[in-house]
């Protein structure tokens, strides 16, 4: 596949980016190694469910996980969940492992962990496709809100 909705969206936004094509990774560590970035610079795009037909993207460094209490407090909600694979696909247009806010079927709000900065690697909308971009440019282009919403992985 030459392009994806994510790559098209990046071009439309005018964001300077580098496309990286690799094989399909089996872990975050393997993906970071294949992309040539640190695990912290590999950003996972997670979709979370706030309610019926109400989602948001959370951008999480590869070496961290969502701190659910911090995220709930930031959003001022009592309950959030991770949708199953079918629901995530319906909400974003991407299957698990390829989810990205770029080119998603709905432009859900985005919360990016406050620790994300500099050059990052985000999914490019298909397995084995990623993009290297500047974090602040991504946040500005997508209207992402930054907040402390993660914790180190155990």
Can you describe what's shown?
The chain has 154 residues and is α/β, with parallel strands linked by helices. It has one domain (5-152): Alpha-Beta Complex (YbaK protein), CATH 3.90.960.10. Helices cover 27% and strands 31% of the residues. The protein has five helices and nine strands; from the N terminus they run αβαβββααβββαββ. The chain has helices at residues 5-13, 28-35, 68-75, 85-92, 135-142; strands at residues 18-21, 43-51, 54-61, 64-66, 110-113, 119-126, 129-134, 145-147, 150-152. Strands 2-3-5-8 form a four-stranded mixed β-sheet, with helices on one face. Strands 1-7-6 form a three-stranded antiparallel β-sheet. The mean pLDDT is 96.
Task: Report a brief summary of the structure.
With 154 residues, the protein is α/β, with parallel strands linked by helices. The protein has 5 helices and 9 strands; from the N terminus they run H-E-H-E-E-E-H-H-E-E-E-H-E-E.
Low-pLDDT stretches: none
Question: Helix count, per DSSP?
Answer: 5
Reading off the top of the CATH hierarchy, the class is best stated as Alpha Beta
Helix content: 25-40%
Q: Can you tell me the overall shape?
A: globular
Q: What is the fold named in CATH at topology level?
A: YbaK protein
Q: Specify the biggest β-sheet.
A: 4 strands, mixed
- Structural class, from helix and strand content? alpha/beta
């Amino acid at each position: 596949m030459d392009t994806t909705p994510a790559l098209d969206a990046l071009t439309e936004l005018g964001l300077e980016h580098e496309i990286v094509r690799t094989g399909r990774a089996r872990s975050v560590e393997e993906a970071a190694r294949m992309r040539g970035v640190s695990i912290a610079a590999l950003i996972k795009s997670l979709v979370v469910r706030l309610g019926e037909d109400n989602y948001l993207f959370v951008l999480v460094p590869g070496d961290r996980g969502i701190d659910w209490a911090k995220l709930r407090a930031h959003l001022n909600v009592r309950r959030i969940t991770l949708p199953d694979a079918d629901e995530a696909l319906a909400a974003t247009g991407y299957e698990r492992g390829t989810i990205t806010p770029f080119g998603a079927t709905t432009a859900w709000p985005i919360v990016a962990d406050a620790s994300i900065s500099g050059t990052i690697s985000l999914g490019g909308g298909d397995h084995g496709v990623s993009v290297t971009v500047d974090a602040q440019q991504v946040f500005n282009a997508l209207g992402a809100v930054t907040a402390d919403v993660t914790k180190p992985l155990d």
